[in-house]
Structure prediction request, 242 residues.
Amino acid sequence: MSLAHEIADWIRKVVREAGAKGVVIGLSGGIDSSVAAALAARALPGNVLGAILPCESDPQDAEDARLVASSLRIETTEIDLTAGYRALREVLPEGPKLAAANIKPRLRMIALYYLAACRGYLVCGSGNRSELAVGYFTKHGDNGVDLLPLGGLLKTQVRKLARHLGLPQRIIDKPPSAGLWPGQTDEDEMGLSYQQLDVALLALDHNDPTSVPAPLLDRIHRMMRRAAHKTTPIPIFRPRRR
Prediction:
């Protein structure tokens, strides 16, 4: 069984066991959401909603999302969250650039769960293992989902899967970006490439850290430590029995 079929079967199983009818997925125009949508379309034909949710976004991203949806023949809805984002910014105190930018994926999470609730669907995320490992996601934003079909795949594996699925080359070649601000890219923000990150994660998998340059490994370990609050269950106080 191919990896694509295996993941599609898993999606179908998760949805069925939840008693849901399908999935809604945010289409950003990037490779991860496109691959996740393609797999969901295989698993649940006719029961996938692609949500295009611009928020002060590059218009090209919405165009790319439409291209993917058209190639997959999935239903879409478009909701511009810009006005809501700006209204919220007006009533919030000034803060750091990243704090303000992270409002966007959290607004998208709200919209996705609203759409899912309207249809009896689950929210399908598109985070991959590379990003999850170092906490490169917005807490209660793009990781606020019901299932993560790409969560066990490295970014380089996602790219290979995109080719296998026949996604548009433009999407495969597009620099990964969370769309937090104009010109923002994942690799610039992380300070390393996905290739470097994946090589290091594989080395750790095989207990061979010496194959990776020490400064790179140290950086990745620091990222993991800083992101521990994102990647572990929420701490819950348990009173001692008296």
Notes: The chain has 13 helices and four strands. The mean pLDDT is 94.
